Automatic annotation (TrEMBL):
Its EC number is 2.4.1.25. Residues 76-196 form the MalQ N-terminal beta-sandwich domain. It comes from the Bacteria. Gene3D superfamilies: Glycosidases. The lineage of its organism: Bacteria, Bacillati, Actinomycetota, Actinomycetes, Micrococcales. This is 4-alpha-glucanotransferase. The keyword Chloroplast does not apply. Pfam families: Glyco_hydro_77, MalQ_N. Keywords: Carbohydrate metabolism, Glycosyltransferase, Transferase. GO terms for molecular function: 4-alpha-glucanotransferase activity. It comes from Promicromonospora aerolata. Belongs to the disproportionating enzyme family. It is an enzyme of class 2 (transferase).
Length: 747
């Protein structure tokens, strides 16, 4: 018998038809292969979040009638996304019998960006209109041919509408073009995006398997850190792991922006903005102007650093609030220092290139700081509100300060990436993109028009999170995003794709469908909403190709099998986690059966490091936090059986003995991954030093110090960046990863 989510009430036929018309799935297959039915109340709530009235049978009937004719109400589709080499036909809706012409205006992407104004931004910030670092210059026109396709006219809203069909030629170049139509004095235009058929992994990476460390940057501290790892530490880590360890990349947690005032949300996966960076990661001393401060101002910086620098050797939870208050005070001092003409020009050009999005983000930060914990009044509800313009002008100096922080962070991230490449890495940095952002954050404010309200995203129950997950982020509104020409998505990608060799997309399945949870409902009482994956994946491929960045999709969890084939077809690497890779009999999948197009790791950041996991500590932790829905004794038995099956698989291949030590087992698992054809192998730095504590326990908030655990060894002693390659366990694992290479590790 199928299971049910929500209140268990069945979905009436007309409601199910309406749900299907708007991409809401009334059933899904869970992690055990069972079909689960979504309740009617959940379907109604999700439709309402999509701006589709469905609370009564009459509302459902009216919404169905509107849905059947919806495409005929607009002259052109909201956005057209196609693959290179494909000839497609585009419908154009006009008064029945009227003549119509259509043409494409090509993007001239190789032209220099045109700034919003030649005047310095700090004068014109409220009127800035540039939309991103790839300001578009339009090129030649391509006239379209009308195809001989007949469609029966329709009467829509008391108007007889006809459909003309135009053929878009297959030889259009990649890029963001504009399709125009004209009929009877009426004109319309829409974005026409031509995307790569396939994103090719760069040849220098594809020629042989590449490996690198996977790290939570905040946890990797040096003696010069201000209580948490920063971008200077990242550069040093990249150099060390390339020069001393032969690694080809360093994979890092999302560096997305946090809020400007304490208390800060610790999760890198719940940022205030995905487009911009957290200034927490800035190394104050590496800002050029810091070197030229007066003695008095230099003392202010040193005084700010003293109380948090000593925290770098503390094994307790990382105190982001203390770090930010110290850094913010120091950064405000450095910000007031004079910049050279060249530096000021570089700053101005950065702001112009990032455009309105940066101005809006900095404005949100300045207003949040100004309100000091008070609720936002209605007159500040969105960036275009008159009250926002007035307050932005009044706070212009703080707006500029928050723009400056982004410029400084961008410079330091670029330097860290370049350090890794110069040290011999083939990829450099592997960045991470979170699923969404906080419901009360900068992105939610600036992009409110393309986000759904009254719902949040998460995941249905699975074997590791048996109550489901609610990540609290508002999802993209599929139709609103298309009407916006996918511009907010594009601009976010363009910023995130800067200064890296690869980008990991957390929960890439969210580009196909997302689990929407109505407000106030349990995480399990949600429904999947589908997205135009051809558009979202295509735009991702286009922007990644322009940036020269490989893309990895974290394709774990509950999903439909065809999705992995589709991602592989588009050249997006998948994710293989050894602990999850099991055949139908429950045995570990043989290395030869792994996907070539994947990043393979032993574990993930949502589980304890491998040593702790194989000791069953994930069961102990979830039992202590009351997260289990099954008997702990049964789960411990499964954990022991899982360990035994791994030992058997490794020993059968001669990778360990039949009774391996903890260290031998961890190294054997990584040798196992080296035997796979996977293009990339990631080694969690926690595994390399013997750490046993998990970074994040899904389903918890204050119950566990998520995202606050500093890097430590098996005894709980802090491991600093300077001491990494003095760690015998790390050196031994690095030697395993380089067994086929001629690499002399330093003694």
């Amino acid at each position: 018998m199928p299971g049910s989510t929500g209140d268990g009430s069945p979905v009436p036929e007309e409601l199910a038809e309406l749900a299907t018309a708007h991409g809401v799935q009334c059933e899904y297959t869970d992690h055990d292969g069972r079909v689960q039915q979504v309740s009617a109340s959940t379907v109604v709530a999700v439709l309402e979040a999509l701006d589709v009235p469905a609370s009564t049978p009459a509302a459902v009937a009216a919404s169905l009638d509107r849905a059947r004719d919806d495409a005929w109400r607009s002259m052109l589709p909201p956005t057209i996304v196609l693959r290179e080499g494909a000839e497609v036909q585009v419908p154009v809706h006009v008064a029945d019998g009227a003549d119509v012409t259509a043409w494409v205006e090509l993007e001239q992407s190789d032209q220099p960006a045109v700034p919003a104004s030649a005047t310095p931004w700090r004068v014109t910030a409220p009127q800035a209109t540039a939309t991103g670092s790839f300001a578009t210059v339009r090129g030649p026109r391509v006239q379209l041919r009308q195809a001989d396709v007949y469609a029966e006219p329709r009467t829509v809203d008391s108007r007889k509408v006809g459909r003309a069909t135009f053929a878009v030629p297959a030889d259009l170049p990649l890029g963001w073009h504009t399709l125009h139509a004209e009929s009877g004095g009426q004109t319309a235009q829409t974005s026409l995006v031509v995307t790569p058929a396939r994103l090719e992994l760069r040849k220098k990476v594809a020629r042989k398997q590449a490996w690198g460390f996977m790290v939570q940057l905040y946890s990797v501290r040096s003696r010069d850190s201000w209580g948490m790892g920063d971008l200077a530490d990242l550069g040093d880590l990249a150099w060390q792991t390339a020069h001393n360890g032969g690694a080809d990349f360093v994979g890092i947690n999302p560096l997305h922006a946090t809020g400007p005032v304490v208390p800060l949300t610790p999760s890198p996966y719940l940022p205030t903005s995905r487009r911009f960076m957290s200034p927490l990661y800035i190394r104050v001393e590496d800002i050029r102007e810091t070197a030229y401060l007066s003695a008095a101002d230099r003392s202010l910086v040193e005084w700010a650093a003293e109380p948090v620098r000593e925290l770098s050797e503390d094994s307790g939870p990382i105190d982001r609030d203390a770090v930010w208050e110290a850094k913010k005070a120091a950064l405000e001092v450095v910000y007031t220092a004079p910049r050279s003409a060249a530096r000021q020009t570089a700053f101005d050009e950065f702001v112009l290139a990032q455009g309105k999005g940066l101005i809006d983000f900095a404005t949100w930060c300045a207003i949040t700081e100004h309100l000091d914990g008070r609720d936002w009044p209605a007159e500040l509800g969105d960036p275009s509100a008159s009250g926002v313009t007035t307050l932005r002008n009044a706070l212009s100096e703080r707006v500029q300060f928050y723009c400056w922080l982004q410029w400084v962070a961008d410079e330091q991230l670029r330097a860290a990436h370049r350090t890794g490449l110069d040290a011999g890495m083939r990829l450099g940095l592997l960045k991470d993109l979170a699923v969404g952002s906080a419901p009360d954050g900068a992105d939610a404010w600036a992009d409110a028009g393309v986000l759904a309200r009254g719902v949040s995203v998460g995941a249905p129950p699975d074997m590791y999170n048996q109550q489901g997950q609610n990540w609290t982020q508002p999802p993209w509104h599929p139709r609103a995003l298309a009407r916006a020409g996918y511009a907010p998505y594009r601009e976010m990608l363009r910023t995130v794709l800067r200064h890296c060799g690869a980008l990991r997309i957390d929960h890439v399945l969210g580009l196909f469908r997302l689990w929407w949870i109505p407000g106030g409902a349990r995480a399990s009482a949600g429904a999947y909403v589908t997205y135009d994956h051809e558009a979202l994946i295509g735009i991702l491929c286009l922007e990644a190709q322009r940036a020269g960045v490989a893309v990895i999709g974290e394709d774990l969890g509950t999903f439909e099998p065809w999705i992995r084939d589709y991602l592989a077809e588009r050249g997006i690497l998948g994710t293989s986690v050894l602990l999850f890779e099991r055949d139908d009999a429950g045995a570990p999948v043989e290395p030869e059966a792994y996907r070539a197009g994947a990043l393979a790791t032993v574990t993930t950041h949502d589980l304890p490091p491998t040593a702790g996991y194989l000791a069953g500590e994930h069961v102990d932790l979830r039992e202590r936090l009351e997260l289990l829905t099954e008997d702990a004794t049964i789960l411990r038995g499964r954990a022991r059986a899982e360990r035994e099956s791994l030992v058997e698989a490794l020993s059968r291949r001669g990778l360990t003995t039949f009774d391996p030590s903890e260290r031998e087992l961890v190294e054997g698992l990584h040798r196992y991954l080296k035997d796979t054809p996977s293009a990339l192998v990631g080694v969690y730095l926690t595994d390399a030093v013997g750490e046993r504590r998990t970074q994040n326990q899904p389903g918890t908030d204050a119950e566990y110090p998520n995202w606050k655990v500093p890097l430590a060894d098996s005894a709980g002693s802090v491991v600093l960046l300077e001491d990494l390659f003095s760690n015998a366990r790390l050196r031994s694992l690095v030697a395993v990863m380089n067994e086929d290479e001629d690499l002399d590790l330093p003694r």
